[in-house]
Amino acid sequence: IINKDMGQSSVSISFRGFSNVDPRRHHKNLLMRILGNSASSRLYELLREKHHLAYTVGIGGSDDSDAGFCSIITCVEEKNIQKALNVIFEELRHLLADGITDEELERAKNKRLSAYLFGLENWHGLAEGIADELLMTGKIIPIEDEIAEIRSTTKENVMNVASYIFSDKPKINILTKSL
What we know:
By secondary structure, the chain is of the alpha+beta class. The chain has helices at 25-35, 42-50, 81-98, 102-121, 123-137, 143-151, 155-166, and strands spanning 2-3, 9-16, 54-63, 68-76, 171-176. It is built from 7 helices and 5 strands; from the N terminus they run E-E-H-H-E-E-H-H-H-H-H-E. The protein is globular.
């Protein structure tokens, strides 16, 4: 907990992730979309729409050459920090116990494919992506292979990744006014 005079408190819950050469990174990206990377995501629906605790909810992270991490990030009023944490951890328990739906997986795949393909339309984005692949992996992954990997992801793939990530001890960081 770090004290700083802010309008809302920032909460980050971090877990282990994958390196950028680990094939499970595609499954993690779909999991992140299902949990928190859009207005139709589970955590957005719960924290913002159902409980009215947060304006922003997201999942971020990093896939570096040797390791990675996954972080659930939200901003809430200081008085609602514990309630928000309870909602998040309850949803993670629900996810691990009940899994994801076919509809959630298809929606996540479509959003991921759209983002990936739109990113390729910009020459700068395409060049940056190719440079990252070449520097990190020593090879350029064909576009068709990336698309096939995303499309072939199963619910079991996503749930195996969820079990791996969320079995890690969470690292909770809070930036708030007075706790």
